[in-house]
Amino acid sequence: MNSPLSLAQQIDLQISANGPISIATYMGLCLTHPTKGYYKGADPLGAAGDFITAPEISQMFGELIGFHLVNVWQQMDQPRQFNLLELGPGRGTLMADILRVACRAEGFRDALKLKLFETNPVLTGEQRNRLASYEPQWLENFEQFDEGPILVVANEFFDALPIRQFVRKPDGWHERLVGLVDGKRTFGLSPTPIPAETMPTAIAEAAEDSLFEVCFAAGEVMSRIGKAVARQGGSILAIDYGYARTQTGDTLQAVRDHRYADVLEAPGEVDLSAHVDFGALAAVTQEIGLAVQPLATQGEFLIRLGIAERVKALSGANPASAEDIRIAHDRLVGKSQMGELFKVFCAHSPGLVPPGFAA
Ligand SMILES: C[S@@+](CC[C@H](N)C(=O)[O-])C[C@H]1O[C@@H](n2cnc3c(N)ncnc32)[C@H](O)[C@@H]1O
């Protein structure tokens, strides 16, 4: 039932009744509460929304990923049926750009079984409008694949999954919680220490007051998809801001109207996200038996896939847009823009050589 209380009031009531909640519980409620979560409401993307993503900046991003996927499909001997899954497809822009290019490869479109995984009903509607001709199926879990290999793409999906945070103290690690002080939402620490030996060895030497983040949801999604890919063959390409090795540091952030905002102030009204621990995701997929490419920056990946040639071809075909295309190129690959902050992760069946990574 749709409660007349705002999400902020519901969260505050829950804390008053049961005590402080973990950051993961808070983030999960803020983002995906069934009726009032941030990702259950209006389309958050684009100039009129809260943030803009790479596929919304330029078609070149999706087109180059389309070339990448065709190459992997060809390395698998062009299976007559395969699954192409996108996690968190937003407006469907990335997939539309991918398929416009990839379906030029003979046999690709006939073999395609398009799968989408999305929580936002408004965005699902936009994906339906955009991609209807490819007859997509929206997955409810990761057991619903058709026969044949599985190619997975995810841009800015894993950063939206809830994280937990822990702070190091002399007696161990204490979970960071959201509680109420004088009626105001405030961060605090659980009084119960977690022994340092139970934390990853990568942070064993962390100094006092260091903050460690872990995203169990990301590991769980990667594990489920990874197992399906290990069974049926294929690859997982994930692009996000993040880091290559498990480390300490507070990366939880709120964004509203293209500006940073307070994480605790307006539950459900601001985007919350955290950097992705690609080292942890690599460990999960390697344990399942997949190979993992060395993490690339988004700039390196797009340059290796030939973004410079794409700029020339598009500018040649649309001279009036040449300046806009150059600006979009710089936003995608520039070191001070998205080029270095965003990373590209790829796990795949052993034997494949996905393009775009260091040999
Ligand atoms: C930051 S947007 C990125 C959209 C798109 N990939 C792009 O690059 O424009 C995150 C996407 O993941 C979806 N999403 C977030 N949390 C999700 C969840 N728990 N389950 C399924 N989809 C989710 C959002 O609705 C949205 O489509």
From TrEMBL:
Q: Tell me which species this is from.
A: Devosia crocina
UniProtKB keywords: Methyltransferase, Transferase
Instruction: Please state what the protein is called.
Output: SAM-dependent methyltransferase, MidA family
Transferase keyword on record: yes
Q: Name one GO molecular function term.
A: protein-arginine omega-N symmetric methyltransferase activity
What InterPro entries does UniProt report for this protein, alphabetically?
A: NDUFAF7, NDUFAF7_sf, SAM-dependent_MTases_sf
Transferase is among the record's keywords: yes
Task: List the GO biological process terms.
Answer: methylation
